[in-house]
Amino acid sequence: DPEETLKPRAPVVAVMGHVDHGKTSLLDALRKTNVTKGEAGGITQHIGAYQITAKDKSKITVLDTPGHAAFTEMRQRGANVTDIVILVVAADDGIMPQTIEAINHAKAANTPIIVAINKIDKPEANAQKIRERLLEHEVIVEAMSGDVQDVEVSATKGTGLDKLVDAINLQAELLELKARPDRAAEATVIEAQLDKGRGPVATVLVTRGTLKRGDTFVVGTESGRVRALIDDNGKQVKEAGPSTPVEVLGLGGVPDAGDQMTVVENEQRAREVAEFRQAKATESRTALAPT
Ligand code: GTP
Ligand code: NA
Ligand code: MG
């Protein structure tokens, strides 16, 4: 994209870590709502996507990833739209299998990590031990002479949240994140489902351009037209710019997480692109089929 039309965009942050280390609680605390209480058994069943506004009015887009092993693939796909990984490690529990998995995903995707050492309020919390153990996985925090920022936090007590936001903003500045808002949108599906009343609904993250009500699009191999856009507060909006998560109504079917949504000029073009993608999908299936 030409340099002059590029505008700064909010960082997209994925919160990753072992089950029950406090990912959702940390996001709740940052957002000051209460998502964990509404979850079945306190286990995140899907990837939530929303934007928080810091005290200095800067925006941060956050993806809450499920802590369940079955969601590994979705999480891998999630890492591709992610600018920064917040690695949540419970200070009383330490480095666990899914902590290591998250480190490996971040490294494979070349995504910078910020370590949030959580549950620092617990008497058995040992932040120094976590810093030392992270060395074994080649995550070298600043206190250990590395360049990975680490912040001690308590999601439940609200400790260290401002420092975490500062760390995110500092990392985001280094990345010089930019996008063109004044072009046809491209977005990535974060999650999608069939809603009884509303039909197929997808939560997408706009990666380029501005997605507008009435836009014709292709998502995966399906075409559609934006009937409504709903923001992360449940409010209808007319458009969504780069780094904005938004719910889209008006899909022809339920896409997969990770599918690309591309806005096109008209329905005929949408059909052409959809057919092209279908043919390509069939081709790769045929190529993979055993002979
Ligand atoms: P999954 O999505 O299931 O992987 O869990 P999660 O990582 O989102 O953890 P969640 O936010 O559901 O928190 C798990 C438990 O830890 C809950 O009982 C929280 O109340 C508790 N917890 C989270 N953060 C803190 C903290 O800073 N201090 C203490 N003492 N408890 C915490
Ligand atoms: Na949990
Ligand atoms: Mg959770």
From TrEMBL:
Where does the protein end up? Cytoplasm
Annotated binding of GTP, by residue: 17-24, 64-68, 118-121
In what residue span(s) does the Tr-type G domain sit?
8-178
Give the record's family classification.
Answer: Belongs to the TRAFAC class translation factor GTPase superfamily. Classic translation factor GTPase family. IF-2 subfamily.
Q: Give the protein's function.
A: One of the essential components for the initiation of protein synthesis. Protects formylmethionyl-tRNA from spontaneous hydrolysis and promotes its binding to the 30S ribosomal subunits. Also involved in the hydrolysis of GTP during the formation of the 70S ribosomal complex.
Name used for this protein in its record: Translation initiation factor IF-2
